[in-house]
Amino acid sequence: MRNPGLAVDYEVEEDYPKFGNNDERADTITAKVLSDFMNNIRKNKTYRQATLLSPFNHHFQRGIWEKDCITDGVKQKLALVQPMPDEYKVLLLWFYANT
């Protein structure tokens, strides 16, 4: 619905999965996308036989990743702010659509 040159509202024409609102369809889609993504990643060799973890662990859900760093010879923990969660959703959906 529009006023002259201005979008003021929208109409929902069909039912759709509501991400983030405990919709079972959205949860199923998300689980499938993540599962397929991780299975495709696991097909590749990792550096020094590293173990792959889910990109959606509790650190990423909070948007903070702690990393051990050495600065001036002193081991410190630095909190790095990660762009979450929309960027990862877009990446996973793109990856799923293109595989």
UniProtKB/TrEMBL annotation:
Residues 1-89 form the PFL domain. The lineage of its organism: Bacteria, Bacillati, Cyanobacteriota, Cyanophyceae, Oscillatoriophycideae. InterPro entries: Auton_GlycylRad_Cofactor, PFL_dom. It comes from Crocosphaera watsonii WH 8501. Pfam families: PFL-like. Signal peptide: none annotated. This is PFL domain-containing protein. Gene3D superfamilies: 3.20.70.20. One of its GO terms (cellular component) is cytosol. SUPFAM superfamilies: PFL-like glycyl radical enzymes.
